[in-house]
Design a protein that fits this description.
about 250 residues, alpha/beta, Rossmann fold, 7 helices, about 15% strand, globular
Length: about 250
């Protein structure tokens, strides 16, 4: 059990990659605080973990709200006495909206969740981890954060920002025993597409952004990303810091 008695906070834990990360971390012995904006699926994940003998506390959270971040992290410390692992997984898409059509509301919403959420959680977690002398932070980036056209302008820019934040934190806090890495998934079978109602299907929207989908060897499974998160969370990756690991079946290798 690679995470025996470790305390982990996982955002976006109600479904998809966050759900599988939470379940696998619990199997590996972690004590969990699970956060998601959707209460019903979040509670189901917590119940599933508890029924299997794991320890999980669900906290309904909007990562764009500072007070929710405070509650989430404070619960981990008050209930379990530490914060060893922070997984910033919650994220939303941008309907493949082209740059000329991005509204202020869309831009600000995507950045509030995809960048502001991880930033606030990291900001809250770092003093705790520094005092402990150790800690692991894992951010969910995207191949869209490394390349220019896997989504719309707002999502692409937000995930590039997550990559930059990851590298900055990884280097700046390395001497405190803190590691910060990101996972950049390619296409993964999750419900993030539910955020894609009214997607921009125009020549500069979905059509242009998805022009390379024919090169994608296959879609990934959420549990495949969870296994990578477990590696990054465990001491097996003790020499891995400040970097981004692509998990895309070779899509971007072409």
């Amino acid at each position: 059990m690679n995470l025996q008695n470790k305390v982990a906070v996982v955002t976006g834990a109600g479904s998809g990659m966050g759900k599988e990360i939470a379940k696998l971390f619990a199997q590996e012995g972690a004590k969990l605080v699970l956060a998601d904006i959707a209460e019903a699926p979040l509670n189901e994940v917590a119940k599933e973990i508890q029924a299997s003998g794991g320890n999980a506390i669900p906290i309904v959270s909007n990562v764009a709200r500072e007070e929710d971040i405070q509650t989430m992290i404070n619960t981990a410390v008050s209930e379990f006495g530490a914060l060893d692992i922070l997984v910033n997984n919650a994220g939303i898409m941008d309907k493949m909206t082209a740059a000329a059509d991005v509204t202020d509301e869309l831009w600000e919403r995507v950045f509030a969740v995809n960048v502001g959420g991880p930033m606030r959680a990291i900001r809250k977690a770092l003093p705790i981890m520094m005092k402990q002398g150790h800690g692991v932070i894992i951010n969910t980036a995207s191949v869209g954060g490394l390349f220019g056209s896997r989504a719309g302008a707002a999502y692409t820019a937000s995930k590039h920002a997550v990559v930059g934040l990851t590298k900055n934190v990884g280097f700046q806090y390395a001497n405190f025993g803190i590691r910060c890495n990101a996972i950049a998934p390619g296409g993964v079978e999750t419900n993030i597409g539910a955020d894609m109602a009214d997607v921009d299907m125009s020549a500069l929207g979905m059509q242009r952004a998805m022009v390379g989908m024919g090169l994608n060897p296959r879609m990934g499974k959420p549990d495949e990303i969870a296994k990578l998160a477990l590696f990054l969370a465990s001491d097996d990756s003790s020499f891995v810091n400040g970097t981004v690991i692509i998990a895309d079946a070779g899509w971007t290798a072409y």
